[in-house]
Amino acid sequence: MKQKYINNSQKWVFSGLNVADYPLISEDQPLVFGKRLRDKIQEFWIYSYSFVKFFYFYLRQFFYRRCREEVNIKSVILHSGRGYDLRNFHKVCNFSDKDSIQFNVFNIDNFIKYKRLGLQKLMKNFSESVLQYQQILTNNFQDDLRKEILRIGPKILPMYSYLKTFFREVIDENPDCIAYSGGSLLVSHASISAGMKTIYVPHGMIPKISPDLFPKYDSIYVYSVDERKYLLDIGIKSSVQIYPVRSIATRNKRVVFFMPTSFPNFVSKKDQCKIFLELTNLFKLFDYEIYIKLHSIHNSPAKFLSEYGYTPLKLNDILDLSVVTVISNKKDAEAVIEDVQPSFAVAGWGSTTLCESINMGVIPISITATRSEKDLFSVIYKVNNRSLLWPLEVGVIQDALKDDLFYDDVIKMLKTGDKNLQSHHNNSK
């Protein structure tokens, strides 16, 4: 999308839309100011509905008592409500209950019940948002994209207006306050537009983005050098940093299976059983202790799992639990690796675990059958170069199990991304 048509204050309009799916504006296309009657009617309905919903947010404030006394707030933590993303916030921000406030970005009531906002300020920001939305619609967008903008308008217009007012109130009372966002685009745009320093703290590896629509974060944290390079190469001006990580001091004859959330390329349970049977048999052959860690999402509320279509894995359907140790705590991959100190970590293709493990000095093994077509085009991290692929590179994995020196060579190659493993494997025969 051309920046000529979209300024920073208007980016929020595209929150939740995958603009890469649609042809956008070309520089030589003129703006279209005349609208069809149907468009005018639809816009009138959007603004009317949005105002009613917006005013409803205002009225809801009076049904809550303030949840806490006003204090000097240093941090606003904007999380997903899933629980596991809070660990990344702690990596980059030493916040406590005394000087921070936390909000589930998917629950507007979290914001409504915290602070009562004045109607005059609310209406001022709502009017600004309507004007920005109108200005966007004057662009000559491709029809399908225009329909999506109109479709999402009633949902995001009242929410953005309310959140922008909320953050302005917070920053007026706490000028040094910093917002830490897990990645909700709409909420991030609202905090940035309100003038609050906002830091992006993703809980997964970042996908490809549209740089002209990406929030103007002050800082961004990523898991890998690949992601950092990508963001800098496409012109992101934010300070881009890599999450801090500690290498493990020793490695044991242990492997941890970090179970994926889904198996897109597995045809049946039988296929799942087969691949995990082959993996467990290989490590048992070398007298390895086998650990299983469920994805953190499996500890999420049932409502969340239902909304996103996740079906919790039943380990006993695909694994012989008598030969493995199941890790039941809620620790993230980094903490599990620190505790277990394995030599190998097995994870689904595109999992952050693959990146975290190699950064900590542990060979990652990627299950290629968990790779989706979407992953191939959207994931920035060079999974194929920085992981061993199962079952494609089973011979290399066997050599690393046999030879400590070769194991160290593999670590070095994966860290640099200069993967020439097959020649090493052939030479070791």
Provide an overview of this structure.
- The chain has 429 residues and is of the alpha/beta class.
- The chain folds into 2 domains: 8-195, no CATH class; 254-428, Rossmann fold, CATH 3.40.50.
- It is 43% helix and 12% strand.
- It contains 17 helices and 12 strands.
- The chain has helices spanning 37-60, 86-92, 109-112, 119-137, 143-173, 185-193, 225-233, 269-285, 302-307, 315-318, 333-340, 352-359, 373-378, 383-386, 394-402, 404-416, 421-428; strands spanning 75-79, 100-104, 178-181, 197-200, 219-222, 239-242, 254-258, 289-293, 325-327, 344-348, 363-367, 388-390.
- The protein has a 6-stranded parallel beta sheet, with helices on one face.
- β5 (219-222), α7 (225-233) and β6 (239-242) form a beta-alpha-beta unit.
- The longest helix is centred in the middle third of the chain and has 31 residues, at 143-173.
- The protein is elongated, with a radius of gyration of 24 Å.
Structural class: alpha/beta
Q: State the end-to-end distance.
A: 53 Å
- Tell me the number of helical segments per DSSP (H or I, 4 or more residues long): 17
Whole-number count of domains: 2
| Beta-strand content estimate | 5-15%
Give, in order, the helices and strands: HEHEHHHEHEEHEEHEHHEHEHEHHEHHH
> If strands are numbered along the chain, what order do they take across the biggest sheet?
2-1-3-4-5-6
Task: Categorize the overall geometry.
Answer: elongated
Helix content: 40-55%
Please tell me the overall pLDDT: 85
In angstroms, what is the radius of gyration?
24 Å
Largest sheet: 6 strands, parallel
- Poorly predicted ranges: 25-33
Count of β-strands: 12
